Amino acid sequence: DHPNIVMGHGSGGKLSAELIDKIFVQRFRNPILDRMDDQAVLEIGGMRLAFTTDSFVVTPLFFPGGDIGHLAVNGTVNDLAMCGARPLYLSAAFILEEGLPTQDLARVVESMRDAANAANIQLVTGDTKVVNRGKGDKVFITTTGIGIVDRPTEMSADRAQPGDKVILSGFIGDHGITILSQREHLEFESDLKSDCAPLHSLVEAMLNEAEANGNIKGIRCMRDPTRGGVATVLNEIARKSHVGMRLHESSIPVRESVRGACEVLGLDPLYVANEGKLLAVVAPQIADQLIVRMRKHPLGTESQIIGEITGQPRDMVLMKTSIGGTRVVDVLFGEQMPRIC
Amino acid sequence: DHPNIVMGHGSGGKLSAELIDKIFVQRFRNPILDRMDDQAVLEIGGMRLAFTTDSFVVTPLFFPGGDIGHLAVNGTVNDLAMCGARPLYLSAAFILEEGLPTQDLARVVESMRDAANAANIQLVTGDTKVVNRGKGDKVFITTTGIGIVDRPTEMSADRAQPGDKVILSGFIGDHGITILSQREHLEFESDLKSDCAPLHSLVEAMLNEAEANGNIKGIRCMRDPTRGGVATVLNEIARKSHVGMRLHESSIPVRESVRGACEVLGLDPLYVANEGKLLAVVAPQIADQLIVRMRKHPLGTESQIIGEITGQPRDMVLMKTSIGGTRVVDVLFGEQMPRIC
Ligand SMILES: Nc1ncnc2c1ncn2[C@@H]1O[C@H](COP(=O)(O)OP(=O)(O)OP(=O)(O)O)[C@@H](O)[C@H]1O
Ligand SMILES: Nc1ncnc2c1ncn2[C@@H]1O[C@H](COP(=O)(O)OP(=O)(O)OP(=O)(O)O)[C@@H](O)[C@H]1O
Ligand SMILES: [Mg+2]
Ligand SMILES: [Mg+2]
Ligand SMILES: [Mg+2]
Ligand SMILES: [Mg+2]
Ligand SMILES: [Mg+2]
Ligand SMILES: [Mg+2]
Predict the structure, then answer these.
(1) What percent of chain B has a predicted confidence (pLDDT) above 90?
(2) Which positions 94-123 of A are in contact with B (Cβ < 8 Å)?
(3) With helix as H, strand as E and coil as C, how does chain B read?
């Protein structure tokens, strides 16, 4: 009902979801796409391959904790990892704006190389287009990844069950607040940096732990809470699984600096983007062991059980607040969300 | 040696090749990328999978014979087909400019759906980002494809041998001249349209023919002569294979309308982009049979042997002109090339 595309269509909120559904999914419709997980899982010749794509359009290109190159590699590595896939191969397509300093491009490419090496993924094919000045924004990068799912995992957003626990791997909002601070030249966040990181080895540790407990299917689903933040991803899972969810605000790790910035900016950290965090819904039998294992991993030291799946009320996320009340954690429309990509 | 990116870096000519080599390939370096074919061929679990990506940034979005959606699907289908792969799965990432009419987007997506159906490829995953007005150009689409190479083909640009024949599947320059005419509001090409088309079934027919002749390895290499045109692709093959090439101008099909437009615009049709043509270097023993088979296919009715591979002079393409002389068909720097993408 929007005759024209608005910024909110890219926010990761309700407007994004509506656009994706109405314009894209309804036309492309097929059983693999319809799952709407962070990646497609393809059965080819008896193997399960994960396949995922993301465009990166972040401003500024360079920011504390990373740059568009790190993001472009790690973002795709993470969407592969979220189904338990081992990242294998990457493609990268560049849209360069006329006038981009060649040195900036080289710096971005070096970050990509380092990130690819760190994640043990090989960049095997690419593309390079140039657009006229004013028809692009320095550099846009689209990465597409292939991974292999070589364990009997069964992860999908429709598998959460009442009694399951919700796990979060660490502090939220670091990436979004870092980008916003840079963009708005806000000074209060001098020591804050993006959490951009590849999550595949944290996921591997979790799968190992679940397997050691004889319960690999106890990991029901994983998501990296990027654009729409933790709140959006949890709402998606609640709806897809047709369950309720109850969070405990006091167990959700938010840095003081992020909390402060959110207050100043009028934002809720639950809706702010992350680039190196994961949410998992897991069977209660393995939740504590997973937390122990995750905390031993450098990217999971602050891992927490932040809530649980309930039977009622379905399709909703409720949160027990720090001061003892209960509130609905809804999906936002899009316009109210911080624009960080 | 360019401190900033210039339009020529996206032309498909020498400047493009230098940028790709110096900035990207030298950093990402690995044996699969280093082949520099139109697609990577991956060995996973005993299977050979083709993997390729392209961004599409064409202006205008809609043009005679197609639109950006057709291009985005067929371009990637063709890069898969050029190694003999059967197209299987596609991803599509969209970068939308704020203000884009939603109806235009829907029209593009419908074209993509139709093109995907026609090529029997399934779109299984995607991404949607929105950039501020003036930071993009209506819509950019990056498609990435996976295909399966299920025959014992061995196609690569380094396999051309003296004595091999060079095959072209039809008229050249239609796409590039159509786009230029639209962009510059030139009127002389009222009946010309883009040749945008999926080539996988033409390739399949060629592979069947080669196989029937017991010589599937006789198809040495295939390329779709997109941005840099026929001249650029043939130079790449000559260099990669370290051979010479001799073309016969009189056998290269160029429509009168394209020839006329090229004269007016000061262009050589050999450097103008195509989106539904293929070049193949093939063993002399199967060249004639291939031509017969190709001409039976709707996309190959004007197929021709346009030249042959020679031993000397190496790394060069020479052309016997219609008036009886011989000229060098060189690679262009980039600035001299028509900008059509
Ligand atoms: N243009 C599109 N066409 C088809 N499917 C799409 C499109 N855009 C998104 N999707 C699908 O919608 C779902 C959500 O995509 P989204 O990009 O929000 O996930 P993500 O990549 O995990 O998040 P982010 O892009 O913030 O990293 C995925 O299943 C994706 O395949
Ligand atoms: N940014 C990049 N990083 C790594 N490799 C790249 C990059 N850009 C292009 N390449 C590689 O360079 C080669 C030529 O790419 P190019 O895009 O010209 O081929 P194409 O897709 O067949 O042509 P077109 O893009 O005109 O359709 C390919 O092997 C491709 O993988
Ligand atoms: Mg993602
Ligand atoms: Mg390309
Ligand atoms: Mg994700
Ligand atoms: Mg291509
Ligand atoms: Mg995405
Ligand atoms: Mg090609």
Answers:
(1) 94
(2) 94-103, 105-106, 109-110, 112-113, 116, 122-123
(3) CCCECCHHHHCCCHHHHHHHHHHHHHHHCCHHHHCCCCCEEEEECCEEEEEEEEEECCCCCEECCEEHHHHHHHHHHHHHHCCCCEEEEEEEEEEEECCCEHHHHHHHHHHHHHHHHHHCCEEEEEEEEEECCCCCCCEEEEEEEEEECCCCCCCCCCCCCCCCEEEECCCCCHHHHHHHHHHCCCCCCCCCCCCCCCCHHHHHHHHHHHHHCCCHHHEEEEECCCCCHHHHHHHHHHHHHCCEEEEEHHHCCCCHHHHHHHHHHCCCHHHCCCCCCCEEEECHHHHHHHHHHHHCCCCCCCCEEEEEEECCCCCCEEEECCCCCEEECCCCCCCCCCCCC
- Looking at residue B184, its pLDDT comes to 82
Write down the ipTM of this complex.
Answer: 0.98
Q: What is the set of domains in chain A, with CATH numbers? A: 35-148 (3.30.1330.10), 165-328 (3.90.650.10)
Distance CA B141, CA B69 (A): 8
Whether chain B has a CB inside 8 Å of the CB on A43: the answer is no
Instruction: Write the pLDDT tens digit of every residue in B172-211.
Output: 999 999 999 998 887 765 789 999 999 999 999 999 999 9
Report whether pLDDT(B259) > 60.
yes
pLDDT tens for residues B64-76?
999 999 999 999 9
Residue-wise pLDDT tens digits, A258-313: 999 999 889 999 999 999 999 999 999 999 999 999 999 999 999 999 999 999 99
The residue among A26, A41, A55, A78 with the most chain B CBs within 10 A of its CB, best to mutate, is A55
The encoded tokens of residue A211 equal 């397997």
| Interface size, chain A vs chain B, as Cβ–Cβ contacts under 8 Å | 265
Residue contact B40–A91, C-beta within 8 A: yes
Q: B80: pLDDT confidence band, cut at 50, 70 and 90?
A: very high
Name the minimum distance, in Å, from the CA of A103 to any CA of chain B: 7
DSSP string, A172-229: -SHHHHHHHHHHTT--TTTT--------HHHHHHHHHHHHHTT-GGGEEEEE---TTH
Shortest alpha-carbon distance between residue B110 and chain A (Å): 7
A-chain CB neighbours of B96 within 8 Å are 5, 9-10
Q: How are beta strands A139-148 and A219-223 bridged, if at all?
A: unpaired
Q: Is the CB of B36 under 6 A from ligand 2?
A: yes
Q: What is the pLDDT of residues A18-72, one digit of tens each?
A: 999 999 999 999 999 999 999 999 999 999 999 999 999 999 999 999 999 999 9
